[in-house]
């Protein structure tokens, strides 16, 4: 799989690691870090030798790595626990999170399904009731799966007659799931259990007999590490042994191709999505389930654009696509005449990007985005615009729930000072009516948010949200957290955050730029921040920091940057490129070893976004910004905390560990270089609220200390 010439000068087994041993730091610092042995590893990349001295930390199962992690956590805890005001900060986080949260209701066969969290429950509970006026009852409580709340539900689907609930359980934050089936009436689980799945949601056939799903290979049937690939699509009939599940589709010659399934609302069509890693372009296959002899046929192939199924009416199939429309359009395809020349545009591409479309009340409800905020419009099936649906304020829609034959839809909406609220859509007036409104312990009138624009290094105009207290005085001393992501077509839009609200209450500002690489302005904006153009993302982020300083909001000693996953790459890369620009850096669950990231877990799926060091041309631009390989010995780096989790099977934690060890060895300032490794947690999804609160306290107390904020204001 990996063809690099690797020379191991010394093996890990040659070293004995003692957790109690501490190294003398090379440069003056207030912290004595645990010793990290240099195992002498050197790789040869296309004729260039590159050292990887802490390669042994990639082995999460070794005692040496475990001991190192324990020692690092101990050093981090000693530093963080000594910060004053932590108890008050935790109390405020708990107060802000202690409110009822209702998920988007879903109506099906006379029943209403929804999730509810009373406030501080580790996981939201699944409820069902008969109609909107029925009495809710608990259908599934994930909090009973594990005492510490680390059992989470990652996928849910219901049979069309509302008799069964298929749900995927994830343990300790892992992406791996096991699918179970529950009888909705009795609350009892069927014996059906499907293991070795991830990133799949069962698609029920309308005879309620079973569902389509995707499964990974059973460990041991492929080489170690390859179980993340070679995905296959199956059909499971209730009551059958999993080994008897019918194989529906596979592409064994393309191990990085993935498959997922959907069933049209009328039950007639099986839609198969074919994707290649993180690439936006995909394929669509289709089978007419009404035809007993129907074969799977190609509908949209060639990976020439993105395609998403919206719904169907008779033989007409509706899709959103980026084909000839980087900001997306809605098209109709006649199943009986599916050739491309017969496709018709229903909703053309406009100035704003179309994010999602729902087929409700025999209409197309189009969720688009204008300057990183949501818009909502209704069209008939011919493309006639029926109404623009007014939203409460500048903010974000969190999903639309409804059926083609239903005259009711539900949506969730949120903004920076507007906690997530459930609405029903009145199709007579096209107005949103409050269905469930939370009661949160804060004054929304005390906060304000606005959007500014600044120029990046190459002159590109980039928008940025600024969230702060009203009447904030620009004195150049405002503590600011600059947060970013900038990748994988992900959009950062206005949502409510308890931690951000607490930060603003303390007199801080939170800044969120819409960096290239994201999805705020369509596929062209995304492509401008990937592969060889990745440096644009870092330039955009650095430009945001410079704007905040130049405009008199803050100064480097009062400016922190934060990002996770791909955003962790962002903050790490910007720190090593411009260390003098920041007072504190939060690098969470990061991708930081750009030469080896693709060798672990599912990371080969990200090659379309980042590239691969196995390619000589891509190696050059990846090494140029790879944070791990650009830490300079003796450089004065700002205060840094790296976070990861021991069971993160999305971004391998070895990257964060090697990066932290490198910073500790090479940093020339007296600022802390900490690493916080969460136990029994993954990349972030499904993390229990208790762990989230503890992490928030550590992060924000660290930032407050490093930016010179004294105490916690009442």
TrEMBL record:
Gene3D superfamilies: alpha/beta hydrolase (3.40.50.1820), Prolyl oligopeptidase, N-terminal domain (2.130.10.120). Residues 1-28 form the signal peptide. Residues 496-708 form the Peptidase S9 prolyl oligopeptidase catalytic domain. Its EC number is 3.4.21.26. It catalyses: Hydrolysis of Pro-|-Xaa >> Ala-|-Xaa in oligopeptides. Residues 34-437 form the Peptidase S9A N-terminal domain. Keywords: Hydrolase, Protease, Serine protease, Signal. One of its GO terms (molecular function) is serine-type endopeptidase activity. PROSITE patterns: PRO_ENDOPEP_SER. It comes from the Bacteria. One of its GO terms (cellular component) is cytosol. The keyword Hydrolase applies. Belongs to the peptidase S9A family. This is prolyl oligopeptidase. It comes from Eiseniibacteriota bacterium.
